[in-house]
Design brief:
Elements: H1 48-58, H2 71-74, H3 117-126, H4 129-136, H5 143-156
Helix pairs in contact: 4-5
Length: about 160
């Protein structure tokens, strides 16, 4: 330390991102790199606020864009669309409430035009039918395995 070396060194103008190899620069704190203020919630047990403040001061985070704007000011320009009032008459009087459901009047789930997962699973299982038949024909095979094979054969054709 006689030459003034050693101890912590704080860079005066850190780079936002370090370069590779010989172009690398320190990117940790300085006056040019402001930090977020320590924020401690109210309430909690005695001494919690002090512990939280010390923990935040020990690991400061870089300043975030936008600063200390309250959440309500961030949402000030947004308009939330209003739906119909609760209890208001329907806007689709000719559509049954079961429209889109798997049962009842109206279109079923097929109206969405999505592939039916059950059909995709059945096609995948059809490829393994010979293996399942072999397992079902073994002594001591469960009735569930035999029923699975019967079901797959019945749906195949």
């Amino acid at each position: 330390m006689a030459n003034g070396h050693g101890g912590p060194r704080t860079p005066s103008s850190p780079a936002p991102v370090s370069g590779p190899g010989s172009l690398s620069k320190r990117t940790d704190g300085s006056a040019a790199n402001p930090k977020q203020p320590v924020r401690v919630p109210t309430g909690g047990a005695y001494g919690d606020a002090t512990q939280l403040a010390q923990a935040q001061a020990g690991a400061p985070m870089a300043a975030s864009p936008g600063g200390d704007q309250p959440a309500h000011s961030l949402l000030a320009g947004l308009a939330i669309p209003q739906g119909p009032a609760f209890g208001a008459p329907t806007m689709q009087p000719d559509t049954p409430v079961t429209d889109g459901a798997a049962s009842g009047p109206g279109a079923g789930p097929e109206a969405l035009g999505l592939p039916v997962q059950q059909d995709q699973d059945l096609q995948a299982l059809q490829a393994y039918l010979p293996v399942f038949e072999h397992m079902a024909n073994q002594p001591g095979a469960s009735s569930s395995m035999r029923n699975l094979v019967r079901d797959l054969k019945g749906r195949a054709g």
